[in-house]
Amino acid sequence: xxxxxxxxxxxxxxxxxxxxxxxxxxxxxxxxxxxxxxxxxxxxxxxxxxxxxxxxxxxxxxxxxxxxxxxxxxxxxxxxxxxxxxxxxxxxxxxxxxxxxxxxxxxxxxxxxxxxxxxxxxxxxxxxxxxxxxxxxxxxxxxxxxxxxxxxxxxxxxxxxxxxxxxxxxxxxxxxxxxxxxxxxxxxxxxxxxxxxxxxxxxxxxxxxxxxxxxxxxxxxxxxxxxxxxxxxxxxxxxxxxxxxxx
Length: 247
Hints:
Strand content: 15-25%
InterPro entries: Thioredoxin-like_fold, Thioredoxin-like_sf, Thioredoxin_domain, TryX_NRX_thioredoxin_dom
CATH class of the largest domain: Alpha Beta
Catalytic activity: [protein]-dithiol + NADP(+) = [protein]-disulfide + NADPH + H(+); [protein]-dithiol + NAD(+) = [protein]-disulfide + NADH + H(+)
CATH superfamily of the largest domain: Glutaredoxin
Protein name: Nucleoredoxin
Number of strands: 11
Organism: Buceros rhinoceros silvestris
Order of helices and strands: HEEHHEEEHEHEHEHEEHE
Domain Thioredoxin: 44-176
């Protein structure tokens, strides 16, 4: 159970490669590694720089192409999503609003769509709703490498930030309430309605109505900040997520 919690395993089978001397994760999505490199030609399967993994042409939904080097110097959101997934479509609508506000504010921000659709037609239909760029659907190898790089185990998921400082920032747009100007950064406390709660151990403080939520947040906030700061100093993820839930 300690290992399941430490590596936040939420589904099986899962295969995670670690550095035996430190216990740190080398590659979170070993299943994709074995599928893509069955002969071990890329062993020991350590992480590669984002610029190397993403290198190649990117698409806009009007058919225009651009080189991945255009992303340099920007905060980049890598968005793993699929049209067949209802939570993905809901998140996309929220993400489009946040993206447009951030761009209007003059921030250097781009989102890269990595499709998990089941056909190119579905990809094109879904991508037509998005104002950002995408990895071509036909480039399955590059899409797979990006999944491997960030240990993606399901959709929707995104990694946000120039240095990808939040390993799984699927909640960032909801945490920001559509009003943050970017870059997205993690908060120690958020509203439980904004996120799925299956990522690991959680502390949820329920309140009778929304009028009590502010007092509840003031109670939990310093506790959350203290615990998160303690583990951040050790370069580890906090073992607990904190939420306040109204009606």
